[in-house]
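Subgroup meeting minutes
Present: P.N., E.W., G.H.
Scribe: E.W.

1. P.N. recapped why we're keeping a running log of single-chain structure predictions: easier to compare across weeks, and new members can see raw inputs and outputs side by side.
2. G.H. added today's entry (286 aa).
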Amino acid sequence: MEAGFFLVYNRSMKFENVHNLTLPKIGFGTWEIGGGSYPDPSKDSASMTALRAALEVGYTHFDTAESYASGHCEELLGRAVRETNIPREKVFITTKVSPEHLAYNALLKSCENSLRRLQMDYIDLYLIHWPSAHMNLPEAFRALNKLVREGKVRHLGVSNFKLRQLKQAQECSETPIVTNQVPYRLPDKSYVENGVLEYCQQNDILVTAYSPVKFRSMRVNKTLGEVAEAHSATPFQIALAWLVMQPRVITIPMSYNPRHIKENFDAAEIELTSEEMSRLSSAWEK
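Output recorded in log:
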C-alpha cells in the first residue's frame, strides 16, 4: 500500500484535537489479536489479516497493551506496520502498562519491553491499564514522566480510572492527561453516572470508549434498528456514531472481519440528529 493512498483515504475521518494532538474519532482496538491473555499462534494469520485490513482502510490509531496475548499482540501490530511500509509518524500507537508493573523500575522495564516488541523507538500514548488498590500513583508517574522527558513516550493517559483517581493522576503528571479509556457504550453509561464523562469533556481529556458494541441486545433494539434503517447503516455503525457524535469521545472497536473493519471505520461519517441521539440515549430505559 502506498502512503499517498493512505493519506488521501483518511482525509475525511472525524478527529478530536486536544493539547496539540489530533486523534481520529475511531481507532482500532486489538484485544484478542494474537490471543487472549496468553499467546495463541493459531490466531496469527487471522490477526495479521485484520491488522493489514485496518491499515489499508485507513485506520491510524491502534490501541494495544502489554497484557494482550502476553505481549504477542504488540509484536504482531509492529510487524503489520512495518510490512505495510507506512511511515512510523503516520500511525499513532497506544499501549498500556499492567497494574502489577507500576513500581518505578518495573514500569520503566515494561516500557522498554513494549518498545522492543513493537520494534519502535517511541510510544505515542502510554496508559496505566488498570488502577490497583495499593498502587503508588506518584511513584508510577515519576517513571512515566521520565519516559516522556526521554522521548520514549509522547503522551500519557490512564484507563479504567474513576474520577478521584483521574484527578490524582492529573496532579502527578508533568504533562496533560490525554485520555481515560473506559467501557462506554449503548446502553452502559456507568461512566456518565460517576461523573467521569462530564469531567473529561470540561477538562480537555478524551474518553476512549472500549468494547463499544459489546451489548448483546444491540441487534434487536427497536430504536437502534429504526435509526440504522434511516441511515442505511448497521446497528453497530449507529452505536459507534452515537459515541463519536459526542464531544471529547473517541472509540476503538475491534473486528477480525475486513468488511466489519471498514464498516466500523465508515461509522465516523454518519451524522445523527439531536433527536436521534436523544432517542438512542433512552432506548434501553424501562
